From TrEMBL:
UniProt keywords, alphabetically: Hydrolase
Organism lineage: Bacteria, Pseudomonadati, Pseudomonadota, Alphaproteobacteria, Rhodobacterales
SUPFAM superfamilies: Amidase signature (AS) enzymes
Protein's recorded name: Amidase/6-aminohexanoate-cyclic-dimer hydrolase
Span of domain Amidase: 27-450
Family label: Belongs to the amidase family.
Molecular function as annotated in GO: hydrolase activity
Signal peptide residue numbers: none
Keyword Hydrolase: yes
Keyword ATP-binding included in the entry's annotation: no
Amino acid sequence: MIAEYPRMDGIALAEAVAQGEVTPDALLDAALQQVARWNPHLNAVVLIREEVARAQIRAGLAQGPLWGVPTLLKDLGAEARDLPAHCGSRALMNTTWPADSEILIRMKAAGLVPFGRTTAPEGGIGVTTEAAVHGGPTRNPWDLTRSPGGSSGGAAAAVAAGIVPVAHGSDGGGSLRIPAAACGIFALKPTRARMPDGPFAGEAWAGMATEGFVSRSVRDTAAALDACAGADPGAPYWAPPLGAGFRAAIARPPRRLRIALCDTTYTGAPIDPALAEATRAAGRLLADLGHHVAPARPTADFDAMLRAWTDIVACGTAQWVRTSPAPDRIEPLAASAVAHAARLSGADYLDALDQVHAFGRQMAAFFTDWDILLSTTLAEPPALLGRFDHSCADYLHYRHGPGMCFDFSPYCAAFNASGQPAASVPLYQGADGLPIGIHLGARFGADEELIALCAELEAALPWADRRPPLPA
């Protein structure tokens, strides 16, 4: 069982615990062994608190769908009383909280056993995970010269390497889906307000950011989302109610859907030819499964949305820096974002918020004729380390410049701005062996239909046996 640990998903491990074939302590031992094997190469797992996990096991675990499964929390969000965080920044090292966040309470109620945190970039504002506070870059297990993406890059690298089968993450502009695509695993960003943010926040980045998970199997994400979804007390707004839930949704294929295929960027610009072909291959697969697939792309104002996203995220960065105990220790990119925010007025911020809301209505109009928008998750293969690190002192160039973040990832932020659910599915690999993620976006509130489609694709073209080799 322990030898098989890196190849098993969380549901299978929990079933083994329930049947008495393995103990939660033994699974934690296996996870720590994987950390010892992989982390010297990856720098993905930090702030390990084995004693906290052992104490949770001794106190008695909830016998939920992920009973006894070891997991990791991102170094942003998932505030925990017994698991301090650096929040990706030297300005916030060893931050502690007086209580557990609601999402962590629900994760533990599902039986999950968190034993540490995964690396994240400062403020979560980049598409890579190269934070000074973590002593160096986090590396992609498929190619150690490349980034695992960001900002949940440490979580994705840890899951891809088999350290844990499912890990906490978050997504404000693609931060679950970008790393999932780069590392060859699965991620679904839920509908806005589907996941709890409390009690330490009401929303993040004007509601564009959400908590979530990365995993190797669709059913692990379904179980984690079922356990954690739903507004927490005092939430400023709620998502539309779920039906039977995520696990029930994947138990059967979805209805036959109208799928818009976009093998360019959403504005029609060309992307890497191999990724464009992967998009078309996914379209052919979906057509073979009986779905209606045709070329189409939204006509929404993407440039205005991206400018608004940039302003809102700059203001969010300025907010946490202002309240940090050591604001002079932030990296150049965050300092530039703070400087940009200082040039914005309150009216400018509300203008940006209005622009994001207008964009959401434009995207909603597109989904009156289509059920799913299909593209690749990234416009090119996983980035080489250093390309997007936070030494850049020009925040606007970093996000909007030629060859920079929005050129590399032109799809994901649209669904943060619109609030609609979206997923990255690891259907393909390039000729170089690097993973290629396929992006699927759905209408607001249609999370269950989206995950059912992801499960149908997983069954049609399984990816579970694709594993990165352990480096020499």
